[in-house]
Amino acid sequence: MRGDPWLSDDQQRVWRSYLALHALLNERIERDMQQASGMPHAYYLVLAMLSEAPERTLRMSQLADLAQMSQSRLSHAVARLEEKGWVRRTPAPDDRRGQLATLTAAGYDQLVEVAPSHADTVRSFMFDPLSDQQLAALGEICQVILDRAGHGSATDEDADEHDEDAEVGTA
Amino acid sequence: MRGDPWLSDDQQRVWRSYLALHALLNERIERDMQQASGMPHAYYLVLAMLSEAPERTLRMSQLADLAQMSQSRLSHAVARLEEKGWVRRTPAPDDRRGQLATLTAAGYDQLVEVAPSHADTVRSFMFDPLSDQQLAALGEICQVILDRAGHGSATDEDADEHDEDAEVGTA
DNA sequence: CCTCAATATTTGAGGGTTCAACAACTGTTC
DNA sequence: GAACAGTTGTTGAACCCTCAAATATTGAGG
């Protein structure tokens, strides 16, 4: 039903390392976030993306793209963030189907408060152990895989260009 | 409250790539699994770990360690896998607190049926794009980080040695 | 204008995960 | 051997995510 399955022994080993790595990292990030702000990491990313957008405002669908989540997931997420007072939703002026999500002042404050400990977690866990060469190698590895994702055998990708502008920072 | 936070620009870029990569990979794996077997990837790992154990049987706590989940999570998971008839639970003979989880024949069949497409997803997405050097580099990167995890600034790790023996394969 | 397919977003149900509390048992210590 | 701390595993509530269905709107064509 597809091309030759199975992983080589080397691939197996690396795959298990990758799984272990991610499990551990994720656990720490989520614990950290939960402690610091009572929200999951995914919600933090939503706030971060908004903070980098002009007017700290984005259409729901763009925000979903940037935060890499489904529209449904985002809708639930923003509902919750709105309850907390960190995001506000207003109807889009030009398209009456749309909604604009805006980061509130309280949301921005929250982001600023949480960011340092999050960044520290990521840096100390993931990056401190790596040499400069390894950091570069990891960057290229991710890029190669991402670039090739979409050709493979699956759905599709619409590939917006990236948009460097670190207001508060992803990590 | 911790050592110098913030990521360098390079680290930021790599971190975002990593996030994008994982989001995409995870999405495909989960979609694949759900389609092929109606269970999440985490449950597949539980079956896989059992398949590699002597007698296809493990104490709940060992299984939780190997599958990298909390006991609570595993308990819920095994409850569900038991409903599906893929795992059976029996009281441990030596310790009356304990439970043994055993992979049933049906569970093994399920694993064998699902494994190829899963392996193919992982290989084609993650490994096909990589050169041999990149595969090796990735392996080392994961190892370095994992080795240093536990010293860092966090909780603790008990570090069991690994245990090569691919009955059906993690991926 | 009317219809129809496509887009944008929300909703609710179903299931997964976490966290804290609990129940049962073990091993040690006095 | 009674008390107690520690281990093993389960439970229920709260929350998050997915999927499919619903709602509202747009834009293209006839």
From TrEMBL, chains A, B:
<dbReference type="GO" id="GO:0006950">
    <property type="term" value="P:response to stress"/>
</dbReference>
<dbReference type="InterPro" id="IPR036388">
    <property type="entry name" value="WH-like_DNA-bd_sf"/>
</dbReference>
<feature type="compositionally biased region" description="Acidic residues">
    <location>
        <begin position="155"/>
        <end position="171"/>
    </location>
</feature>
<feature type="region of interest" description="Disordered">
    <location>
        <begin position="152"/>
        <end position="171"/>
    </location>
</feature>
<dbReference type="InterPro" id="IPR000835">
    <property type="entry name" value="HTH_MarR-typ"/>
</dbReference>
<dbReference type="GO" id="GO:0003700">
    <property type="term" value="F:DNA-binding transcription factor activity"/>
</dbReference>
<protein>
    <submittedName>
        <fullName>MarR family transcriptional regulator</fullName>
    </submittedName>
</protein>
<feature type="domain" description="HTH marR-type">
    <location>
        <begin position="1"/>
        <end position="147"/>
    </location>
</feature>
<dbReference type="InterPro" id="IPR036390">
    <property type="entry name" value="WH_DNA-bd_sf"/>
</dbReference>
<dbReference type="Pfam" id="PF12802">
    <property type="entry name" value="MarR_2"/>
</dbReference>
<dbReference type="InterPro" id="IPR039422">
    <property type="entry name" value="MarR/SlyA-like"/>
</dbReference>
